[in-house]
TrEMBL record:
Protein name (Swiss-Prot/TrEMBL): ATP synthase archaeal subunit H
The species this protein was found in: marine sediment metagenome
Keywords assigned: Coiled coil
Coiled coil: 59-112
Source taxonomy: unclassified sequences, metagenomes, ecological metagenomes
Length: 128
């Protein structure tokens, strides 16, 4: 019976040891869950921080591109205005030149008309 008692005692110790091991495993699992949970929280914080930084960088890049586009539009407008001003000056210069040519032709036509009238007057008076 002593032998049987030893076996029972060994079995009880095995069960106690197994319970201790199970308790240790359970505690370690709970600790692992806490660590995983904390790591997830930290990862989410980091993710949110990076997202905010990314949005700020994207907004900054967007605003920079808008600024560049506005400057380019201003440059094109100035360039266009200069081109238009030059074209207007050329048109005015050409118009002035044409006006002078017309004035010269008008004077010549006027002089010719006056001379023709004078010729008619003098030629008629000579014929009479």
């Amino acid at each position: 019976m002593l032998f049987l008692g030893n076996i029972v005692e060994i079995e009880n110790k095995k069960q106690d040891n197994m319970l201790e091991v199970l308790n240790i495993v359970k505690e370690n699992q709970q600790e692992a869950k806490k660590i995983i949970n904390n790591a997830s929280i930290e990862a989410e914080k980091i993710k949110q921080g990076l997202l905010i930084k990314s949005e700020a960088a994207n907004e900054e890049a967007f605003l920079s591109e808008i600024d560049k586009a506005e400057k380019r539009a201003d440059e094109l407008q100035k360039s266009s205005s200069l081109g238009i001003d030059q074209e207007i000056k050329q048109i005015l210069s050409k118009a002035e030149q044409q006006a002078k040519e017309i004035e010269i032709k008008a004077k010549a036509n006027h002089e010719k008309a006056v001379n023709d009238v004078l010729d008619m007057i003098f030629n008629r008076s000579e014929k009479k």
